[in-house]
Fold:
Amino acid sequence: MNASAPNPYGVSVQVRGLRKSFDGQEVLKGIDLEVRPGEIFVIMGPSGSGKSVLLKHIIGLDPPDDGEILINGESIQTPEIASKYRLALVFQSGALLNSLTVGENVGLYLTEHRLKSPEEISKIVSEKLEAVGLKDVADKMPNELSGGMKKRVAIARALVIEPQLILYDEPTSELDPLSAVVIGEEILKLKNEIHVTSIVVSHDRELAFGVADRIAVINDGRIVTIGTPDEVKKTSDPLVQRFLNADFKRDPPKPKAYEKFT
Structure:
């Protein structure tokens, strides 16, 4: 993840035959998908379906039991290839360090690796915070920010390395609807302005259909369907339809065991 020279162009990602087990339980069961350069690719599915495990494999945090992951056709399981591309992960929690200011959090990678002078880091931090609409918060502490602001700071920190691929793990979790919309707008803006490839893991249906170029639905470690938002909405697969149309019922039928008390 060399940050010495920016490259604004997104990369392609290919996942081929990916399998992963933990304690004898197979979590990923032969995943195949391809993400095109510069697109926003959303991975949706129920809790426990393997979404976050897949994301960790793509970013290189977990090694696969079988299969491979390619960036621009090159295997990231080769160390020299893995270091060739700029990949950034925006964690579900934001993962900001509470002991550092917002500016120090955003510039941490550059500071720790001594890639820029303090003056240059300060300038880059200001630019990245302004890019996500947080121009005047560099001196604040993370606990002074709202949940949505913390997510945007995490995006600013990812931008510092001039990424070619950004992976988002549940970027709108625990956010109110307005803050979630802001995060969606930021993801779209980065696609349009720097042409970065984005992979978004989310169960937020509004986010997925609002930002995605294509959507993959995963269930029980397998890809159920892949297509544009319209194609996914129209799929006849009953599992996909149940997931997309699940809703809270205000007046559910009473269980029979309850009837004797009414």
Observations:
- The two ends are 64 Å apart (CA to CA).
- The beta strands are 13-22, 25-35, 40-44, 66-71, 74-75, 87-90, 165-169, 197-201, 214-219, 222-227.
